[in-house]
């Protein structure tokens, strides 16, 4: 089972929500009903170069084949996203919502939902850590 863990906290490895996500994965590893090997790929979104979506709809054009016109880290991230069996979003709750890096990533998945060849059901499990200041 390929698990993609998105760490969306500005605190990166020191994030409390990441500790919760890692506990969840540890529980999966201990589950006797899961017979396949678990591979975890942790990606910290604040370390990636992700541009804002331009809403240019280039990815909808037939010649684009569902690819974004921008050349940044999203090309590789989308491949990881598509190939994963389980996606875990680890993020703090900031100002009653999720962080900006996560919002940018979600907006840039736009080509996946507009081009037929990329359609795949992805199981998503979200973890929320309410920050207290």
Q: Classify the secondary structure makeup into a structural class.
A: alpha/beta
Low-confidence stretches: 118-126, 128-133
Strand order, sheet with most strands: 2-1-3-4
Mean pLDDT: 84
- Biggest sheet layout: 4 strands, parallel
* Strand residue percentage: 15-25%
Q: Based on Cα principal axes, name the global outline.
A: globular
What is the helix content? 10-25%
| Head-to-tail CA distance between termini | 37 Å
Alpha plus pi helix count: 3
**Series of secondary-structure elements, N-terminal to C-terminal:** EHEHEHE
Number of strands: 4
Supply Rg: 16 Å
Oligomeric form: single chain
Provide an overview of this structure.
By secondary structure, this protein is of the alpha/beta class. It is 25% helix and 21% strand. The chain has three helices and four strands. The chain has helices at residues 16-30, 74-83, 100-107, and strands at 2-7, 39-44, 86-93, 123-130. Strands 2-1-3-4 form a four-stranded parallel β-sheet, with helices on both faces. α1 links the parallel β1 (2-7) and β2 (39-44). The chain is globular and about 45 Å long. It starts with a strand and ends with a strand. Residues 118-126 and 128-133 have low confidence and may be disordered.
